[in-house]
Amino acid sequence: xxxxxxxxxxxxxxxxxxxxxxxxxxxxxxxxxxxxxxxxxxxxxxxxxxxxxxxxxxxxxxxxxxxxxxxxxxxxxxxxxxxxxxxxxxxxxxxxxxxxxxxxxxxxxxxxxxxxxxxxxxxxxxxxxxxxxxxxxxxxxxxxxxxxxxxxxxxxxxxxxxxxxxxxxxxxxxxxxxxxxxxxxxxxxxxxxxxxxxxxxxxxxxxxxxxxxxxxxxxxxxxxxxxxxxxxxxxxxxxxxxxxxxxxxxxxxxxxxxxxxxxxxxxxxxxxxxxxxxxxxxxxxxxxxxxxxxxxxxxxxxxxxxxxxxxxxxxxxxxxxxxxxxxxxxxxxxxxxxxxxxxxxxxxxxxxxxxxxxxxxxxxxxxxxxxxxxxxxxxxxxxxxxxxxxxxxxxxxxxxxxxxxxxxxxxxxxxxxxxxxxxxxxxxxxxxx
Amino acid sequence: xxxxxxxxxxxxxxxxxxxxxxxxxxxxxxxxxxxxxxxxxxxxxxxxxxxxxxxxxxxxxxxxxxxxxxxxxxxxxxxxxxxxxxxxxxxxxxxxxxxxxxxxxxxxxxxxxxxxxxxxxxxxxxxxxxxxxxxxxxxxxxxxxxxxxxxxxxxxxxxxxxxxxxxxxxxxxxxxxxxxxxxxxxxxxxxxxxxxxxxxxxxxxxxxxxxxxxxxxxxxxxxxxxxxxxxxxxxxxxxxxxxxxxxxxxxxxxxxxxxxxxxxxxxxxxxxxxxxxxxxxxxxxxxxxxxxxxxxxxxxxxxxxxxxxxxxxxxxxxxxxxxxxxxxxxxxxxxxxxxxxxxxxxxxxxxxxxxxxxxxxxxxxxxxxxxxxxxxxxxxxxxxxxxxxxxxxxxxxxxxxxxxxxxxxxxxxxxxxxxxxxxxxxxxxxxxxxxxxxxxxxxxxxxxxxxxxxxxxxxxxx
Lengths: 433, 462
Prior knowledge:
Chain B: Residues 314-402 form the Amidohydrolase-related domain. The complex is a heterodimer of chains A (433) and B (462). Chain A has 433 residues and is of the alpha/beta class. Chain A has helices at residues 2-21, 122-125, 131-137, 167-170, 195-224, 233-243, 255-265, 284-290, 312-322, 340-352, 354-359, 363-368, 415-423; strands at residues 36-44, 50-59, 62-67, 76-79, 84-87, 89-94, 141-146, 155-161, 171-180, 248-252, 272-276, 294-296, 327-329, 386-389, 400-405, 408-410. Chain A has 13 helices and 16 strands. Chain B contains 13 helices and 17 strands. In chain B, the strands form 3 sheets. In chain B, strands 1, 2, 3, 4, 5, 15, 16 and 17 form an 8-stranded mixed β-sheet that branches. In chain B, strands 8-10-11-12-13-14 form a 6-stranded mixed β-sheet, with helices on both faces. Chain B has a 3-stranded mixed β-sheet with strand order 6-7-9.
């Protein structure tokens, strides 16, 4: 009797956790790492041509092998027959992870107060669980530069991979100090300043930039000389651009500003990347001559002037590339970074060409960031950031079938997809009155 | 003599009216294209003959009547002119934000035929846009359906005169922000939005009734009834109740969409189209049953709270639930690649080519009440056509030529560096400003409402 009671109690106890969990229905699929063999695909390596009937082995977060007849019996096999493997796409300029809903100021973390705040770290405020990250990565965009905005030196941008639970797990190994180059043009149609005032303001802003830069230089030489320095985090960070430890990402759009920026950079022994560069096509030869790489975009954008050709923004990347500029593409987006391949497709159609357009969102940004040993192509030894698709991922109709980030197999789901699953055939449907 | 003058004046007036009605009509034979008719399938190596602005023949081996130009479109695609059911291009002013109901104002008074945005839309294959009032009011102004006859200098010539009247409504954050929070008057909530609508329609019913009693009484002998005071605002609302005007309602959340469906049912309104409709997918069966459909963004979301719970699969869910669905731009930029936006329904929901193309042609035509005239390549329809290099749903597609009423208004080979129609001697050309404004224009012109109140509202203009 006693024993029966005991057994009964034990079985009741055993039921408790089950009962407690019963309200959770279904299983959440998490990203998972492992050894994966992506078998029998057309591999678009970007750097080593296109390989038919080729397999890719993913192991320890890396691309272990690319080839045929790979022997990996312990790997999880993913049949990719009829599919294409591309490197993960890289967006060279976004605010992804820094904002949740742009009209709700409490969720907007990309613009700090102040004009000189290079010590504001985008990486600090990257929210690994931002809804837009899940929405973005299933498109095959695996890596983005996330960029703070605001004043003259608004902060430090960081490259992130779109998988991980902490900013450090997501960090992609590249940072840059952002500079919004002082504009010498009108700010918009409501800018009613006289030409003379605009000129004065612009000269003043440039002088301020020079003064700040001079301060950073002084700070650096004092620091290198071993002087005892007061706590000065802005100069401490900016001096890293002066020394070349970090590149300077100069955001600049208008033709005259680009020319001024080229002049400003001249004679400074620093690493520089231009970002935005909407009117680069007007001064493409000068940019090429200066040897400054460019992250341009958005491509799907209006021309900057009423008098411009309708396709000025579409054709910009192609014209710069033709002049010899190294070009990567950015969306300058937050929630719609997933459109990166389509921005690249428009650049391709309006002069850049398909091959160069693909490079502009894979190997070119990797080279510009100096991380081409890790990113930007399907080659053994690189990080396993991979996209498996039914066709060209720049083509709207193509479906992205699998995404790998740092060797993690990413579940092909997000809120947009879950809402589709729930509401496609709603039950109850239309209820009869 | 005075009488004669009057007759002359009347004749002159008629003459003016007549000339206004004479918009350019062209004749052209487009040969050897892959013709995407949208409603009648695809035709390989087919020809389309246009005479005097009307599609006269669709078939093979057609020959051009004398004097009609032939265009060889071998290897290219021909589709109907793209129709944008939500645009603010070519409007000088978008919002009359002064009251929750401003049904009396008309966008056709604000049309600017010089705006370069018209040409840029043509360069993206868009021949018709629905130039809408903004979303500051629960009941906004009356919209204008435009035909992109670039080069016309008379606003009347770019208005599609044979399109039915439509009016803008708006629910949710924008009207509650402008009036409830900006001006401290109803509506501040979505409850208030419903109240504004019901109060407005009830007042219009009374207004209508007072005119009906007056009209019934005035014919009777010896009556002394005074006519009611004419009120353009209530008159317009009454005409909505009479089914003379199609409502196009800015909306995002499912609850507010469902609310308006109920209000419409209670007042016997059936001519109703939802705009934006980001959460339309949640009430797709209801939208399908009771309305003329939904006009949506392909993938915009998360720029404000009421679009946070959106999905890029919205259009596909709506379509598969039987909703007449169109893809719109609401943006001077997006309007230039609606063919690409439509293709996103294939990435997000796997729609067929025909379904995707319908969303920028025949479906918006239905929602604007012009599907008997445009929206497909069929004999007898107005010859609004686009020739594409590459299939229009490809992200690499490039529009080559765009025709309105058989007249070519865009030709990529004849595109000039500066396509503006008119550069005034005083207009500043340099230095220029860069395009920095938000693409959305739904809350354009309401800035003054917040200057004294709270600048923060200005940041968000969608």
